[in-house]
Write a structure and sequence with these properties.
Elements: H1 16-19, E1 45-56, E2 63-74, E3 78-82, H2 89-96, E4 104-109, E5 112-113, H3 119-129, E6 130-133, H4 145-155, H5 160-173, H6 189-201, E7 207-211, H7 219-236, E8 240-243, H8 247-251, E9 255-260, E10 263-269
Parallel strand pairs: 3-8, 3-9, 6-7, 7-8
Antiparallel strand pairs: 1-2, 1-4, 4-5, 9-10
Helix pairs in contact: 4-5, 4-6, 5-6, 6-7
The structure holds adenosine-5'-diphosphate and magnesium ion.
Residues 89-90 line the site of magnesium ion.
Length: 273
């Protein structure tokens, strides 16, 4: 895949401020050629929680929002996390994404226990090893699609040309290469969310974590976005943990973990169809 014009980023200078955005502040390495697909059940454990608790000390009495969570995720697995609003899905996802610190228990990600890291090391781990997709895409409106995907890589020190090449390649994997020059405002909601998925995977993260990525979309676009995750899991062997309200989507993943009141009430491995 080659672009027909030089990358748009090189036509202007980015300021530090341009690069300093928080919401999707993760980084990025290389698109994954790999043939890891289908590795799930016997495969290596890539993420695991052990006797994980999260207790909030907001008011007079502490509130336990996660109770003794033991979840094991293997390389290449596509995991759905469901449960009623307030059941603790986001809290668990954020702990699995090193965005939050546990009260007790362990969170192992790719061989490292997150509770043992200080905030800086946890942020560095997150930026180098994890990819995030949120309900809202947090694309930078003044930048093009390819810039939005390339900028997190540039923030990690990857030079512009290489970051753009990887960005373009990743957009191609998701069928979005024709949109590379557009601004987010010229895209549909579903396209914007697919660009944010490209941004999350362009750095070849060990795990992709998504919190209700279809929650803001109509059913047609939700299905398109779900299909992107399914493609990443099936064809590229990506490890994906996705919070969703949609039980039909959840049933089409490799593993369905259900939460209720901060506890895992079901954890079912589902055969690929
Ligand atoms: N920062 C916070 N302060 C107070 N309560 C919180 C906070 N974060 C989460 N909670 C509470 O913890 C519970 C789980 O929240 P959350 O993980 O966001 O659930 P879900 O994503 O399943 O809707 C809810 O009862 C919520 O109100
Ligand atoms: Mg939530």
């Amino acid at each position: 895949m080659t672009r027909e014009e030089p990358g748009p980023i090189s036509q202007r200078l980015l300021t530090e401020q341009d690069l300093d955005f928080e919401a999707n502040d993760r980084p990025s390495p290389v698109p994954p050629p790999s043939a890891r697909a289908g590795e799930a059940p016997g495969a290596e454990v890539i993420a695991e929680t052990r006797a994980l608790y999260k207790v909030l000390h907001a008011g007079a009495t502490p509130t336990t929002i996660l109770h003794h969570i033991d979840v094991t995720i293997r390389r290449g697995e596509f995991v759905a996390l469901t449960g009623a609003s307030g059941s603790g899905k986001s809290t668990l996802l954020y702990l699995l994404g090193a965005l939050d610190r546990q009260t007790s228990g362990e969170v192992w990600l790719d061989g490292t226990e997150m509770g043992a890291l200080d905030d800086d090391d946890r942020a560095a781990f997150r930026n180098e090893r994890l990819g995030f997709v949120f309900q809202f895409h947090f694309l930078l409106p003044e930048f093009s699609v390819i810039e939005n995907v390339a900028i997190p890589m540039m923030r990690r020190g990857i030079r512009r040309g290489e970051a753009e090449d990887r960005a373009y390649q990743t957009l191609g994997l998701l069928g979005l290469e024709a949109l590379w020059k557009r601004k987010p405002g010229q895209l549909s909601g579903g396209q914007q969310q697919r660009v944010s998925i490209a941004r999350a995977v362009a750095n070849d993260p060990a795990i992709v974590l998504a919190d209700e990525p279809t929650g803001n979309l109509d059913s047609h676009n939700a299905a398109l976005v779900f299909d992107v995750f399914a493609h990443l899991a099936r064809e590229q062997g990506r490890t994906i943990v996705m919070v969703t309200h949609d039980t039909e989507f959840a049933q089409r993943t490799d593993r369905h973990v259900k939460l209720r009141d901060g506890r895992v009430i079901e954890d079912v491995v589902q055969p690929r169809r």
